[in-house]
Design a protein that fits this description.
Strand content: 25-35%
Number of helices: 15
Strand order of the largest sheet: 2-9-1-10-11-12
Shape: globular
Structural class: alpha/beta
Length: 487
């Protein structure tokens, strides 16, 4: 059976996911078979595996860092929020239905056998399992039914490193306060603390680190520098949403829907030097970009209402009339049609029907089994500015409850309007290049001035950069002693 180590945090966005990815890459570099594991993840940014199962994107990133294909066993429970008090519950890649938070809270113990089955299967195939917690282990109101922090650590006998975020301030209080709220047996599992996202001279921290060690009774295992790596992050806490980016030679705007999902679909466009990819949720910020992207959403009808009520619909129509290309993915694609209806209450507690943007000749009805599949093929019959895609290969995955017709093409189009159900459709080599080049040609810009890249090589470089930063800040000899139960 594999050895294990668990990363828990003082709060959400303390850096657990990225740190776990860094450890996965380090262990891979050191010659070990390593797999990530997170028993329960709450995220709208999900992925479909080759077998058709759905899992959280964070564990996909960690699997890539480990050199593995994503596997639903790495994230046996995925919660996709549908409202402020409820989520769609996915177990081992398969939808179990929608549950209110109170119902799921009481049912969590039922899922322990599934969690352990997934964990032990991975442990039989690997040398090391890197486990990620969720939120904080000091959520004292949730500890009774915990299956993702100390509750899981006990089930799989995992030693824990506790990470805090110094960039947000108060890191000593974060770490000590978390330890202080734990039970004695939980404290015994914490083998060390980590100060994450540090900018500056570590020598200035030393007095505080020494006091922290005395208070917590465990060593500081490392001070990880703030590292600027381009690696997919969790959805609701993504820092990219907070950036007010200036418009560049080619300007692309993503509509930031209230329940935006799978925004990583657009990551390929972030990596061009002279292309701006802006996330926009205010009419005043939209302007008339070269391309408007309408992303996926977990609440299509609700987000379409927001689009209408916020004035964004009218602004999109105005930009389209002025020549902006519009491209919708999944929920965004459904919004481009004539009508969306939910007679079976898939998304909400009551049957709903709403007029779409009426850009494409289609109607969407929610119902039936969820479509979950990987898909690959070649672009065909794409017209207009993006006709340059024809003949190029694409690959991606579909996740949707809505049905918009039979035998749909990979991309539906009408004049300057485009839509597709395929997440990741811009990821395959040459696809994003073709889109950007088409936009350049339209504006008379030399495509060579935009700069291109090999996305696979780029990702590998980013994982290696992350591993270098984690090695530089973390006492890896200490980590290996923890793995070997010598600490």
């Amino acid at each position: 059976m594999a050895k294990n180590i668990m990363i828990q945090g003082t709060m959400s966005n303390a850096g657990k996911s990225i740190l776990c990815a860094g450890l996965c890459r380090i262990f891979k570099q050191d010659g070990y078979r390593v797999a990530p594991f997170k028993s329960q993840n709450m995220a709208l940014n999900s992925f479909i595996t080759e077998s058709g199962g759905e899992m959280g994107r964070a564990q996909v990133v960690q699997a890539e860092a480990a050199g593995l294909k994503p596997d639903v066993r790495m994230n046996p429970i995925l919660l996709k929020p549908t409202t402020d008090v409820g989520s769609q519950v996915i177990v081992n890649g398969v939808v179990q239905g929608n549950m209110k938070a109170s119902e799921y809270f009481h049912r969590k113990p039922e899922y322990i056998p599934k969690i352990l089955e997934a964990y032990h299967a991975l442990a039989q195939e690997n040398d090391i399992i890197v486990i990620e917690g969720a939120g904080s282990p000091a959520e004292i109101n949730l500890k009774q039914t915990d299956i993702v922090n100390m509750g899981l650590a006990k089930l799989v006998d995992a030693p824990v490193l506790l990470v805090g975020d110094i960039d947000r301030g108060g890191v000593f209080a974060q770490l000590y306060g978390t330890v202080a709220l734990l039970e004695a047996d939980e404290k015994a599992r914490i083998k060390g603390t980590i100060v994450n996202k540090f900018r500056g001279d570590r020598a200035i921290l030393e007095p505080g680190l020494k006091t922290l060690e005395e208070l917590c009774g465990v060593p500081v295992a490392g001070v990880i520098p703030y590292v600027d790596v381009d690696i997919d992050d969790e959805d609701s806490l993504s820092e990219r949403f907070d950036h007010r980016q200036a418009r560049k030679s080619i300007d692309i705007a993503v509509i930031r829907l209230p329940r935006i999902s799978n925004f990583t679909d657009f990551a390929p466009f972030e990596r061009y030097e002279n292309v701006s990819l802006r996330y926009v949720d205010r009419v005043s910020d939209l302007h008339e970009p070269d391309l408007i992207l309408i992303p996926g959403t977990k609440s299509t009808i609700s987000d379409l209402k927001w689009l209408r009520e916020s004035g964004m619909e009218a602004s999109i129509e105005k930009a389209s009339a002025a020549g902006s290309l519009i491209f919708g993915i999944c929920g965004g694609y459904q919004m481009l049609g004539r009508r969306i209806s939910d007679p079976n209450q898939v998304e909400a507690a009551a049957s709903q029907e709403i007029a779409g943007l009426d850009f494409l000749d289609m109607e969407t009805v929610f119902g039936g089994e969820k479509v979950q599949r990987q898909i690959r093929g070649q672009f065909e019959n794409v017209s207009g500015v993006l006709s340059v895609l024809n003949g190029k290969s694409f690959e991606g995955y579909e996740i949707h409850m809505g049905r918009s017709g039979e035998n749909l093409p990979s991309v539906c189009c009408r004049e300057n309007i485009y839509g597709s159900y395929i997440h990741g459709i811009f990821d395959a080599p040459g696809v994003a290049d073709a889109v950007v080049q088409a936009l350049c040609n339209r504006k008379g810009i030399n495509f060579s001035s935009i700069n291109t890249f090999d996305i696979h090589e780029y990702k590998e470089q980013q994982y290696d950069r992350l591993a270098d930063a984690v090695r530089a800040g973390l006492d890896m000899d200490f980590v290996y002693r923890i793995l070997n139960r010598e600490e």
